[in-house]
Design brief:
The chain has a single domain, classed as Aminopeptidase, CATH 3.40.630.30. The mean pLDDT is 97. The relative contact order is 0.19. The protein is built from two helices and five strands; from the N terminus they run E-E-E-E-H-E-H. The protein has 92 residues and is of the alpha+beta class. The chain has a five-stranded mixed β-sheet. InterPro entries: Acyl_CoA_acyltransferase, Gcn5-rel_NAT, GNAT_YJDJ.
């Protein structure tokens, strides 16, 4: 599954598209230049059980590490993934 990203400098999203349809999306907003807030994650039933949500979080962590910024996971799903994945604590 390829995870794509859009970012306009104020807000953005990590998402998965298939045949022109967005099947999974995790949105975020920038809080200054050094932190972004994950505010929503949604995965279509078409991708249920395939780990798409966790892959979106992993891509956000990779992005945060590349940009040397922090993540505030306000979305309940993203928050639970961070709690279960100690390896991601460096970007919190």
């Amino acid at each position: 599954m390829e995870i794509l990203q859009s970012d306009d400098g104020k807000k953005g999203a990590f998402y998965i598209e298939q045949d022109g349809e967005r099947l999974a999306e995790m949105t975020y907003v920038w809080a200054g230049e050094s932190k972004f807030i994950i505010d929503h994650t949604e995965v279509s039933d078409k991708l249920a059980g395939k780990g798409a949500g966790k892959q979106l979080v992993a891509k956000a962590v990779e992005f945060a590490r590349e940009k040397a910024v922090k993540i505030l996971p306000l979305c309940p799903f993203a928050h639970s993934v961070f709690k279960k994945t100690p390896a991601y604590s460096d970007v919190l």
